[in-house]
Structures are given as C-alpha cells and as structure tokens.
Amino acid sequence: MLYRSNVLMYDKESESLWSQIKGEAVTGELTGTALEVLPSTLTTWKRWRKQHPETRVLSLDTGYSRNYASDPYLDYYKQQSGFRSFFKLGPGEKEKELVVGVVVDGRAYAYSLELLRQQGEIRNELGGLKLHLSLDSATDSLRVTKADGSQLPHMLVYWFVWKGIHPQTGRYQPD
Fold it and tell me: Cβ neighbours of residue 46 under 8 Å, at least 6 residues apart?
C-alpha cells in the first residue's frame, strides 16, 4: 500500500529497491522505472468489512512465530516526531500529520487530511488543473479528481515523509 512511510520494497528478481513515495525504482537494474499508483484507503477493519463483507483474509498460519494480532508499529504511530526527521517545520505544521500528496506536471502539493475531514471537500487549482478532493467520512473513501471527474493518483502519507521526498512541495492553505 502507498501510505504512512517511505518503505523501500525489494525485488529479488531484478535486485532493485523501489520507493513507494517516489513511485520508482531507486537502485538496481530497474532504477528510474515508474510504479503505477493504485488507489488505497486508510480505514478501520470494521468499516472495511461493512463496505466489503465478501473480503477474505489471509491465514495467520504463516509458518513464522510472529504475533500478527498486534501491530509492532503502534508506539511509532503515537509519537509526534518522525523517524530521523531533518526539515524545519512551518507555522502549525506537525511532522506526523497525515497529508494527501499529489503531483501534477512534476509539481508536488500536499493537503492536510485533518482539514479535508473537517471540510468534507477541497477545491483547488494546481498547475492550471482544477482539483476536487473529497472524503466520505462514513467509509473513509478519499477521492482526488480532475474537473472532468477522472481520478488523479494520490497518496496518504506523513507530512515529514512527503516533504523529505518533495522538498519544494506546495501546501494547501484555505483562504
């Protein structure tokens, strides 16, 4: 999934490392090859099951002794500071604030998820492209669409991660 952190995925076949946030291979023979950004959502299991009752879950019987019933990152989620964050925060910014990141014609932009939750929708123009961000609070469905209704690839990610990968990013501020 494309959210939360900048995990590098390893491809054994090509021995390439893939950055989820950059959306491309960063080392190995496939360096520079782009990933396709797929829609994802950050929701609770209860909400997901309500919307998708046919969902099947992989077995916890994996052959490994790991306890899959607990999240090993719970303490990390609760911390307010990022992992080895290195950039200076602006007024009102929080390192681990969740933002919706979009890139249009090479220009990165971030929208506060909390602001989107409060407003339900945000309309904005980026690089001459009219954007509509909407969040259905009942299902946690996040949509970023162009004026013609087509979806725009986006990701939900911590602010410090987005800013680290896109240092020149813009940030939406309501009027």
Answer: none
